Amino acid sequence: MAARRTAGSDGAPVDLRDPDEADVARRVAYAWRELRRGAATAALRDHFFGAGPGSLDPGQMDTLDVLVTKPEWRMSELADALRVEASTATRAVQRLVNDGLAERRPSGDDGRVVMVAPTAEGVRRHDDVSQRRGDALSTILGEFDRRERRDLADLMNRLVDAVDEFVAGLDDTTAAGDHR
Which CATH class for the 53-119 domain? Predict the structure, then answer.
């Protein structure tokens, strides 16, 4: 998906020699790191997924988030939806199967094809976590007014699109031996 451009956004790289642009880039990098690795992240993860034996990890929850959107998935479709390699999706599903949250079964159309579906317990656990995430987001987003929330959602979607676009370009530059 191509990044959406706005007025004044030409998609050209930002000149980090400009002190103001470098400061903005540092602030974005700091926020990104804190959201990804900050101390509060562990507490939030435990709040959402539980702590200790039987707790979910973010990868398991990502997989459950996708699994519950339809009755069953081909493994290859699930990997695509998760944006991971098939082997990564297989390992994520295996952890869910081991915990009784998903099941594998042969396809009714082609016995060679493996289908994956959430179990009733998987749906229940997903619903529990979704409720806690919704409660947290409601409180967190309450710090922003309606317009800011809309802008934040739009900007975050554009950030995801821009990262996807950059990563897609890595395939081209990596193949050419350009490892900037």
Answer: mainly alpha
